[in-house]
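Sample pair:
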Amino acid sequence: MRVIAGTARSLRLETIDTMDTRPTTDRIKETLFNIISRELPDCTFLDLFSGSGAIAIEALSRGAKQAVLVEQNRKAVDCINRNLEFTKLKDKARVITGDCVAAIDSLERSGLVFDIIFMDPPYGKLLEKQVLNRLASSGIVDKNTWIIVESDLDTEYDYLTDIGYEIDRVKKYKTNKHTFIQEIL
């Protein structure tokens, strides 16, 4: 896995061997960043269920001004920190070790509002629903925030309108998809 573009272009990132993380392939990551490229310069980026940190590192490499990475797995957090050091992007990043909902509570107290929130939770556990419900009542999201969820192809989002969100677009791949979500305007 490598950084595709920007200041850290072509640098290889470390990953961890565990069943708890599934690194997003370079091809899927490139497609994702082609879609969001106009939103990246000077944005604040939140990466939930960060794994190796590759998505937030790519965002920082491409011009995001700040990224917060949230990961519960201690080995993954160590990997994130090594990758941030290696890419020389650590000064633009904050790493939070812990549960994503608890991290949202903490971030809400900081007054920070994110432009892009990306999450890649473990598939089939409905964690994205739990996080989206918490984000809906959170001050870290506003009408301009773009929430992107990576999930398996079978994940349904039929509850979104009930919590004030709508699907902006869906990009499907062979085994998974990215769902782009925003507040209902």
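The chain has one domain: 26-183.
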